[in-house]
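Example 9 (inverse folding). The structure is encoded as follows.
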């Protein structure tokens, strides 16, 4: 199993990842504001189901495959960097809107909320890149089965993400109202989000493939 110190370090990395604005955060905030906390929580359950897909893929060895095949790694790396830059532009472009800015969305059924939350996360390149780049640094044959180490890391990441996203879903409306009364802070939040996403894109693009 993964040593406790490594597990705590991994949990810290997972916390930083979930606090970085991305498709999951934008979707959960928008849904919670427009359809209420219950809809936000249902959507979150779909997001968690998406995490299970990423975790099982990593545990089954796809991470090792991507790291072993240069072309697969490069394609994922540049696609992820391009997507993060797109998200940064969406936040920084003139007339852009913050995820905490209320917007109208049609009310969806519980089943559709689950599906949309699931698809938002399964297709989220930030999560795929996280699993690809972080998992190999915390698994080792010296600590036992690589499969079960990956499951342990995945469960830790899912618990951290669920706790943070649950707070976001339950408090989205309150945060949106607070920002609505303070437009300067709303602009600042959007600008900070865009700069963080751009920084992540540059870091990802410059990351070298791990070998050996």
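The amino acid assigned to each position is listed next.
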């Amino acid at each position: 199993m993964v040593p406790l110190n490594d597990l705590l370090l991994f949990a810290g990395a997972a916390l930083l990842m979930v606090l970085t604005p991305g498709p999951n955060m934008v979707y959960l905030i928008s849904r919670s504001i427009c359809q209420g906390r219950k809809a936000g929580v249902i959507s979150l359950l779909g997001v968690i189901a998406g995490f299970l897909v990423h975790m099982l893929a990593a545990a089954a060895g796809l991470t090792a495959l991507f790291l072993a095949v240069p072309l697969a790694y490069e394609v994922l790396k540049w696609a992820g960097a391009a997507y993060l830059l797109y998200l940064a532009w969406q936040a920084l472009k003139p007339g852009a809107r913050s995820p905490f800015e209320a917007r109208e969305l049609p009310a969806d059924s519980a089943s559709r909320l689950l599906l949309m939350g699931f698809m938002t996360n399964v297709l989220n390149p930030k999560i795929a890149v996280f699993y690809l780049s972080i998992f190999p640094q915390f698994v080792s044959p010296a600590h036992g089965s690589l499969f079960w180490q990956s499951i342990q890391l995945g469960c830790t990441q899912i618990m951290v993400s669920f706790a943070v996203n649950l707070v976001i879903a339950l408090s989205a409306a309150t945060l949106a109202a607070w920002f609505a009364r303070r437009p300067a802070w709303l602009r600042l939040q959007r600008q900070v989000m865009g700069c963080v996403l751009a920084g992540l894109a540059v870091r990802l693009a410059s990351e070298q493939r791990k070998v050996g």
